[in-house]
Specification:
It is an enzyme of class 3 (hydrolase). Extracellular zinc metalloprotease. This is Neutral metalloproteinase. Its main location: secreted. The chain folds into 4 domains: 129 residues, no CATH class; 71 residues, Nuclear Transport Factor 2, Chain: A; 147 residues, Roll (Elastase, domain 1), CATH 3.10.170; 187 residues, Orthogonal Bundle (Neutral Protease, domain 2), CATH 1.10.390. It is 27% helix and 20% strand. The chain is built from 12 helices and 25 strands. Strands 2, 3, 4, 5, 6, 7, 8, 9, 10, 11, 12 and 13 form a 12-stranded mixed beta sheet that branches. Strands 14, 17, 18, 19, 21, 22 and 23 form a 7-stranded mixed beta sheet that branches. It has a 4-stranded antiparallel beta sheet with strand order 1-15-16-20, with no helix packed on it. The longest helix is centred in the middle third of the chain and has 23 residues. The chain is globular, with a radius of gyration of 23 Å. It starts with a strand and ends in a 5-residue tail after the last helix.
Length: 594
């Protein structure tokens, strides 16, 4: 079989020779720029990196070199699976640091264990090792952290507000696994299809480490077409529900080829006997399927075609929505690879499945399920199918977040808003990266899903003034968002609290400048009266956010901790006295995160 390629450009691979040489002989040839370390444009007064190119290359043997990434990404190599990360020399060094100089900082006890899930190595040899914690063999939920080191010396540890204690619980449960399953099934609002066997964990999100049962429940929600995939954490002493962790992340909080939104675009499909199928072999065999308007994917069918022309620019052909989704996923894959050196959601080169025509025919939403993307058809009156380019980028970015920081979603203070904001940010950057005349880049999420939208001023979210919807937040409230109110459709639902991160990113990239088509004053775009903020551009802002997400954010990161993480990312890339660093600080202050 061979791929049928068209207008979507392939990634520009800028390091093939180096990769080939390293694969053949374990060569320690220094890549271009490795000796200088940080990206061009960093402050001349920033401290010089202590690069050790030979050592860096030894550390990245068998890892994926970040070929094709922009120089600004500062990434040399990264692990491609948790297994590879755990077996790497960098992980061994990080564990030794956690056993010695970093032990007190992370409140390590003798029975604590640490396993690497992800390793990223910068061009100057700095190693960022993302660790999952265990206690006496039980996973610690909320105990994840990142160890940052260079030349074997600890630089810092990034962690959330959890695990601030040396106290650990007894691991003998009083509640049985069977009873935990019954309790979890009873808590599910809908019809239960399957309950996974309960497993003991240490639960430490916003509470003292507590022995808990984790029970994963799958089923059909009551009065909600979203896939039902929920993890319940129950106190193993008395069955008290500690947290309900919804694993499905949606694109719209308010319920909301020949494509529907982009005109005629080029797609990559695959040849099969008698024609073609919507599978992209150039991007890890990502596939787009027809869910046939079922609230599930088991009955989904492939899109096959005889002439390799998909859709008719209208909803009368089911392949039109598929063309939008397929193109959007390909564009997102290319963005992360070309800009950040990330080879797919999980950095393993594999594509994911996308299901269009999901759920009832009037479903105004799209979702990331943890392993796939699903798109509703809209109501046909106000909304068309939710397959717009930035929505596709948004959903795929949820996958990147899940593979890296794993920012918590519902019921976890600020991290759900940061999770949603991350997807809005990268969905926006994907839209800009394509430059399609029918859907030019902007800071409006999902404006193309509206059937009637003169001037394109309606959107699911306005990143620069999300509170224009009357519910969202653009300014961080005093004391932050309360975890107990971050449930779905709650006062601090992640789709509402994301407005703080979205405005921060807009101000960082563009400054306090009113977007075209809107009449807001600069004072209405900031929370502190600082109307003279100048943007540093989307490329630099995106590089800072991606670096913070993949190096410094953890599952329970708060907005103030995100400020710290992005400042560190800016210092890494441009220096702590640079204009970029100062712009990050100023933009966070402008959304009341200090």
């Amino acid at each position: 079989m061979h791929a049928k390629t068209a207008l979507l450009s392939a990634a520009v691979v800028a390091g093939i020779a180096l990769l080939a040489a390293s694969s053949r002989s374990g060569s320690e040839t220094t890549p271009a720029g490795a000796a200088t370390g940080f990206a061009a444009g960093r402050s001349a007064t920033a401290p010089a990196p202590r690069a050790d190119a030979a050592r860096a290359h030894r550390a990245v043997q068998a890892m994926q070199l970040a070929v094709g990434s922009r120089r600004e990404s500062d990434l040399l190599a990264a692990s491609t699976s948790p297994e590879q990360a755990a077996a790497s020399p960098a992980a061994q060094r990080a564990r030794r640091l956690l056993e010695t100089v970093a032990a007190d900082a992370v409140h390590r006890t003798q029975a604590d264990g640490f396993v690497a899930r992800d390793v990223m190595i910068d061009r100057d040899g700095t190693e960022h090792v993302r660790m999952e914690r265990s206690y006496r063999g039980l996973a610690v939920v909320g105990g994840d952290l990142v160890v940052h080191s260079r030349n074997g010396e600890l630089l810092s540890v990034t962690q959330g507000d959890n695990m601030r204690s040396f106290g650990r619980p007894s691991i003998e449960p009083k509640l049985s696994a069977e009873q935990a399953g019954i309790e979890a099934g009873g808590a599910f609002d809908g019809t239960v299809a399957a309950i996974a066997p309960a497993r003991l964990v240490i639960f430490a999100r916003g509470t003292e480490p507590t022995l808990a049962w984790q029970v994963d429940v799958e089923g059909d929600r009551r009065n909600d077409p979203a896939p039902g995939l929920i993890s319940y954490y129950l106190d193993a002493r008395n069955g008290e529900l500690l947290q309900e962790d919804d694993r499905v992340h949606s694109a719209a909080a308010n319920g909301t080829g020949r494509t529907l939104t982009l005109g005629n675009v080029g797609l990559v499909s695959n040849s099969i006997s008698g024609g073609y199928t919507l599978t992209d072999p150039t991007r890890g065999n990502g596939q787009t399927l027809d869910a046939r308007n079922q609230t599930g994917t088991s009955a989904a069918t492939a899109f096959n075609d005889a002439d390799n022309v998909w859709g008719n620019n209208a909803t009368s052909d089911r392949a039109s929505a598929a063309a939008d989704a397929h193109y959007g996923v390909a564009a997102t894959f290319d963005y992360f690879k070309n800009v950040h050196g990330r080879n797919g959601i999980f950095n393993d080169g594999r594509g994911v499945k996308s299901y269009v025509h999901y759920g009832p025919t009037n479903l105004v939403n799209a979702y990331w399920t943890g392993s796939a993307m699903v798109y509703g058809d809209g109501d046909g009156v106000t909304y068309r199918p939710l397959v717009a380019l930035d929505v596709a980028g948004h959903e795929m970015a949820h996958g990147v977040t899940g593979a890296t920081a794993r920012l918590g979603y519902y019921n976890i203070k600020d991290s759900g808003g940061l999770n949603e904001s991350t997807s809005d940010i990268f969905g926006t950057l994907v839209e800009y990266s394509v430059g399609n005349a029918n859907d030019p880049g902007d800071y409006l999420l999902g404006e193309e899903v509206y059937i009637n939208n003169p001037g394109n001023t309606k959107a699911l979210r306005l990143m620069f003034k999300q509170d224009a919807d009357g519910r969202s937040f653009s300014c961080y409230p005093s004391g932050g968002f309360t975890a107990s109110l971050t449930y779905q459709n709650g006062k601090y639902d992640p789709h509402l609290s994301s407005g703080v991160g979205n405005r921060f990113f807009y101000l960082l990239a563009e400054g306090a400048v009113t977007p075209k088509g809107f009449s807001y004053t600069p004072a209405q775009l900031v929370c502190n009266g600082d109307t003279t903020i100048a943007g540093i551009g989307r490329a630099k802002a995106g590089a800072i956010w991606y670096r913070a997400l993949t190096r410094y954010f953890v599952s329970s990161t708060t907005y103030p901790q995100a400020r710290t993480g992005t400042l560190q990312a800016a210092a890494d890339l441009y220096g702590s006295t640079s204009a970029e660093y100062k712009a990050v600080a100023r933009a966070w202050s402008a959304v009341s995160v200090n």
